[in-house]
Amino acid sequence: MKASENVFVLENTMKKRGKIHTNKWDKYLDDYNNYIKEYKKHYKNSQNGDEISLSLYPYMLVKWEDLQNRITRAYAKKCLTKKQIKRVIKINMKNN
Fold it and tell me: Superkingdom, according to UniProt (predicted)?
């Protein structure tokens, strides 16, 4: 292969990796959004004395904190796009 062909292959590989990485974080944000909805549902049910929600609530709180920390670390490492950052803010604002 010529040097210019190597550069072209490397550039395309990096673009694909970036796209895969972005898609991975889009999936994490989908999961985060769905999890927050589920968490809020169980929180409200536990306030009303639902025993199942009361038993699930501590586990869900720990998992929610883990997801939130993962997203915070991704933001700090600049793994999220501007669109994804806006989406995180929107999710957090909507679910407060």
Answer: Bacteria
